[in-house]
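Practice problem 4.
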């Protein structure tokens, strides 16, 4: 059995509700990282995801590269999204127990990384429980020391675009290469998929294809736990 958390980045798009419905059908509780500006544009669909049992995390307001922002601009990006998510949880009547953050583009701020890590800790953010992740690069880059939620497998399906040459088979190859190289069968994994209407236009219901591929390879999606 391969245990994994499922995370969905870049909500909320037009296909987010359909993704949530499929997750419910498969009895998968995922963490959805919200792009604040898109939540404002698709507020009811984000509320729908929350009411269906998904956990909503912060993916910044404008989805900018944090290494290109001043610390003040970065904090504003986080806090603007936080305010939106606080309102979302209040409107749903669901208590917001966990504050999670994922940097856009996996960009932790480079020279300002330590500043952001301290800020997130001071503000009471937590992350998906990564204490049972035994992946070489997790230790190599000391990701276990960070408070933001990173990933162990990015499916990269957002590369499926007109004239890109990147296909469904490339995503499946990524999945196979990743799991074929696992040395510790008891390790936990954090998988990231994206909620993009552009991918939906290229491959209708792409999320079903890739979630099913993962399940068929023995992946069991576990409910989120946090530290």
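Answer key:
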């Amino acid at each position: 059995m391969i245990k994994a958390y499922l995370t969905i980045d870049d909500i909320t798009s037009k296909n987010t509700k359909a993704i949530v419905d499929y997750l419910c059908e498969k009895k998968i509780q995922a963490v959805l990282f919200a792009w604040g500006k898109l939540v404002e544009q698709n507020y009811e669909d984000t509320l729908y995801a929350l009411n269906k049992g998904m956990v909503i995390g912060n993916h910044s307001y404008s989805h900018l590269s944090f290494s290109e922002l001043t610390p003040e601009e970065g904090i504003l990006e986080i806090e603007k999204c936080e305010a939106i998510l606080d309102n979302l949880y209040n409107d749903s009547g669901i208590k917001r127990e966990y504050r999670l953050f994922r940097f856009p583009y996996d960009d932790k701020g480079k020279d300002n990384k330590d500043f952001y890590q301290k800020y997130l800790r001071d503000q009471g953010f937590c992350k998906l429980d990564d204490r049972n992740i035994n992946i070489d690069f997790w230790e190599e880059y000391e990701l276990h020391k960070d408070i933001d939620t990173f990933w162990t497998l990015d499916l990269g399906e957002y590369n499926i675009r007109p004239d890109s040459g990147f296909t469904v088979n490339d995503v499946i190859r990524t999945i196979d290469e990743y799991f074929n190289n696992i040395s510790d069968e008891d390790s936990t994994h954090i998988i990231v998929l994206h909620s993009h209407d552009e991918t939906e236009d290229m491959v209708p219901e792409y999320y079903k294809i890739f979630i099913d591929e993962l399940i068929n390879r023995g992946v069991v999606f576990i409910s989120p736990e946090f530290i």
